[in-house]
Each structure stands twice: as structure tokens, then as C-alpha cells.
Design brief:
heterodimer, A: 5-stranded mixed beta sheet, 5 helices, B: 363 residues, alpha+beta, 5-stranded mixed beta sheet, 10 strands, 3' exoribonuclease family, domain 1-domain-containing protein (chain A), RNase_PH (chain A), ExoRNase_PH_dom2 (chain A)
Amino acid sequence: MPLDTSAYSLALLRVDGRRWNELRRVHAQIRTQAAADGSSYLEMGHTKVMCVVTGPSEPGARRGGTTGGAGGGGNNAAEVSVTVVVAGFSSVDRKRRGRGDKRNLELQSTISNALAASLHTHLYPHSTISISLHVLSQDGSLLAALINAATLACVDAGIPMTDYVVACTAGSTSTYAANDEDADPLLDLNHQEEQELPSLTVATLGATDRVAVLVCESRVQASRLEGMLAVGVDGCKQVREILDRVVRDKGRKMVSEGTVERGIGLESMDLD
Amino acid sequence: MASTQHVLLSPAELAYIHASLSLSPPIRPDGRTPTQFRPLVAETDILPGTNGSARICFADGTEAIVGVKAEVERTPGADAVYDPDHAYDTNAGETALEAGQSDWVELSVEIPGVRDDDSGVAFLSAVLSEALLADGAFSARLRINRRFHWKLYLDILLISPPLSYPLPLLSLTTHLALLSTRLPRLKSEGDEDPFFDDDWAAAPHLFPRHDTTTTSRPPITLLVMAAGRNIVFDPSREELAVADVALAVSVVATTAGTGKKGGGRSLRLLSVRTIDPPSRLTPPGVANEANSAYGAKAAGLVAGQGQRQPEARAAEAERVEGVWRAPRGGSKAGVLAALVGKVLEEGGVVDEVLEALEGVDLG
């Protein structure tokens, strides 16, 4: 499926009609599931993921297929164990990924490490925070969507954290081999672009420039890396705004519905 | 994810729940009537990338998503039958190819935190696929022509942690997903290589909604249990913990003619499976007469059984009113027949459930 990259230079529009610095539609919900401690649903374009957080709770018997351990060393901090289930129907052609799939394991340990660094796991010694992520539909930026959904679910579960861990992808308009100097960096790649172009996934700690995750699985010319990274970090700031708005809207709604009490010091908060 | 997951209830609590379920009429812990289902929220066609999908949330917070994907597959051994020059001459192997094969449907169940080779998960998917394939009528729908068929992949995801035994939830979600499943309209004729209409709006449902002759629906599997003399539908986790017998009963409903709604519906039993209820593993209670806290120590010593555990003695003792004893041994044939009969009852729970599911907007 070759992407007609030459078309980009004509109108500076990508295959789905976006400009280089535009995100796809991000739609998120939190507290989607009553039985869980924390839950969220996130769409980035056509990538749809659901997340359910259980815990912090007493660690049960060692469960199969989870990857954890990050931050869990020595039992003085909670262990963050992540399970990613990629549904068979999520991609165009049905493909079943087993639990032991290497790509899955890598996704799990990346998410686990990123969240363990941001969550205040030291407050919950001898316990486990288990995060289970379900991929319902994939269209690129899978890791980014998973990280964002996991962050939202952890917010919903009320686990103290330094800041949102927000992620987004960035790419470059020309392939590794093509040596054109005026290659533009691109923000938030879809599946088609991800197949064709060099890309990286970057996650930052909130709106700061502190990078929490940087994953690049394709060959990129070193000179273009800086531009891609800058665009990615900038995209993360936009994603943080969106996620923050989702959390605040939900909080405001819960206060106005009387589900939760208005906190001390929030009397002045404008509830419209 | 076995049905026998541990329930943190004391013998006294178990005895109380069992006693209240055995009353006439039974009193259930959540106040439902014996034939009442847990309220649920359902939606279909949630994933545009699938042929059919559905999501159901039960009121206790358990949630499942089912996605159905179909692929065209060559029927093995059928090419020998097909000869382009004499396409309609030969009848060899006709009967064998008219029916569907059970490997045309692949079903997988995913439960978070549980290995996919776990025996409980394997049992769940066996029960669900058994119901689908029991009468061969379902896989016959997947036949395109003598040389090709649809291969249907059903992926069943439990999103929430398994709070109660998820069989009814997964079955109802699968039912809805199959109801909303559409396959592209076939344009080619006979035994040619299949060629489909690319207009998705023209794609017919796998289970046509308004058929002129008979309407059949995908099967549903219900969980029924008996406690004392009572039969209880859709037991919650606590109720299952005191069940004498628990059955997974799969039924299919066929509506004959275009009569009024629910008019000519006839139910057919597809399969019955006994579920091993967790009640068999619960610890027995100790009657006051045998309890050392109530001065029973001397009695035990007098009988010369001082070295035996009081629990072991209690388990062997006579059944005492209000003292929990795990059900033992098999269940009576009469009870099983009553359970199945109750499911197949005209105008009973199955009718109610099917009508409720038909009310879900299929978009």
C-alpha cells in the first residue's frame, strides 16, 4: 500500500486531509465502567482502546501473561502490571495475537515502566496496580493511545501521580532513503502513514518537555530526529489539554450531580 | 476463570442465603424475582471495522464486547466436485456440502488476567461454540456455494474483571453481535468464484430480521440453578455459591410465520451442561451442639473421637437446620428435568430475554 508521498508536497495536505501539525480527533471518556476502580475509553482517530484499572490492591497469585515489575522492586512500592489484549477483530484482516506475542510484551513493559515512574507507587507498598488494556480497533499510534488511556484510567482510580503521562506520534514526510532537505515533520500518524514513513512515539510528563517514553522502530535520518521530536512533544501538550478537559468535565459533572462532594477550597470553582 | 472462584462468605452466611433462596417464594440477595434477569445496557454496531459487534453491561458492572469478522474460505475437497463445463451436472458430494462444517466458526474468549489456556476459559468457549454448532443450522448459513464458504471469527472479550460467572453475559453479547452481523451481498451465481456487492448498505443480515417464512435467531445460553425446591435464573455470584445444581442450558428460538410478535415462537433445546458450582468447595458450618464454644468439647471426648477435627465431625453429622453443609454427590434427575423444563417453558424467561434483545436497535 504505497502512500503517495508526492501528493503531500503539492498541497501540503496528508492522505486524510490534515496539515502537518494537526492531531486526529481525540475523544475520551472516563469512568466508563462501574465495577472497576478506574476505567477509560479513548479514541485517537480510528484507534480505539479501553482501559480498566484494578487496585492498588493486595497482589494475588501471579497472573499469566502480564508484564510488570517496574517500580515493584523490593516490595517497597506498588507493582504496576499491565496486560494488553489486542482483539482479533481490531485490524482490517483478522489476526490473533497470543499472550506471549513479543510486540505485546514490549507494549506492556513500555507502558508499565512509563506509568510506574509517574505514579506515586511508594505510597502503596506490597500492592499491585493492574491495568488491563483492550484494543478494539487499530489505525496507527497504538502505543500512544494505550498510554493515554492508561493515564486517564489511573486518574479515575484516584492513584496519586506527578502529572499526566501523555503520548503522541510524530513522523517525517520522506522516507529514510529519500534525501530531500525540505522534509516536513508530521504529527499523529495513522496506520497508512506509519507503514510508509519513519515514525516515533513520544510521551511526556504533562505539558513539560520531560520525555517519559521515546520509541522509534524505524530508520530515521539523524538530522530529522530533532524536528520530529519537537513536533511530537508539542503534540503531547495538545493531548494533555484534551485529556485534562475530559477529566475536569467529568469531575464537574460528578459534583453537580452530587455523586461526589465538592472538595474543600473548591467553593469558588465555577460550575457552569 | 473457573466457576469455582472463591467467594468470601462464612458458613453462616451461606446457610442464610441458601435458606432464603429455598423459601417459597424465594428471596434473592438482590431482591429480584426468581425468573428476573439483572438489568443490562446493550448496544450494537459499535465497531465499524467488524461485520457485527455488540456490547453489553450488566448492572453489577460486568461488561463484554463481541466482534464478528468474516472471511471467504475455500471449502476443502469441493473443487473435485466443481467442473466449470458441467457445473450443474454432477450431484456427487452434494449432500455432504449442503450442510455447514463446525470448523467454519472459530470462537475465542478473552478474560483479563486469565491465561487463554485456562480450563475455565476453555470450558466457556466450549459451551458457547457448542450452542452455536449444535444443530448445524448456523454453519449452514455460512455456505456461499459448493466451493466457498464464510469463515466466521467470533472474538469475545470480557472487559471488566469477572465479578460473577460470565457465561450468560458472554452468551447474550454473542447473540446480539450475531444479530447485527451482516455479510456482503453475493452477486455471482452458482459455483463461480464468489463476487460481492461493494455496497455495505445492501449487505443482508446473517439472521434476517423480517423473513417471510420462518425467523430463527442465534442461540442463547442461560444459567439456571436450583436451591432447595426453587429454580433461580441468572444467579449472581453469591447465589451460585450456595447452588445445589447449576446448569448452562442452550436454546434456540424459531418463530414460524409472520404472526404477531412472540406469537409462534417455539423453543428448541440445543445443549445442557452442568456447571460445577463453587458451593461444593465451601467449608461446612458447625452446629452449636458440636461447637466447643458452646460447651461441646466434652461431648466429643466422651465419644472417643477427641483427636478428630470438629469440622470433620460436623461434616459427617446429620443435616441440621440453619447449619451450612456443602451439597454433595450428584443431583436428582427430577431436579435436572425441572430446570430444563422451566427454561423451555412457553412464555417463560427465554421469551422475555429474546424480546428484550430484539428491542435493541440494530442500527
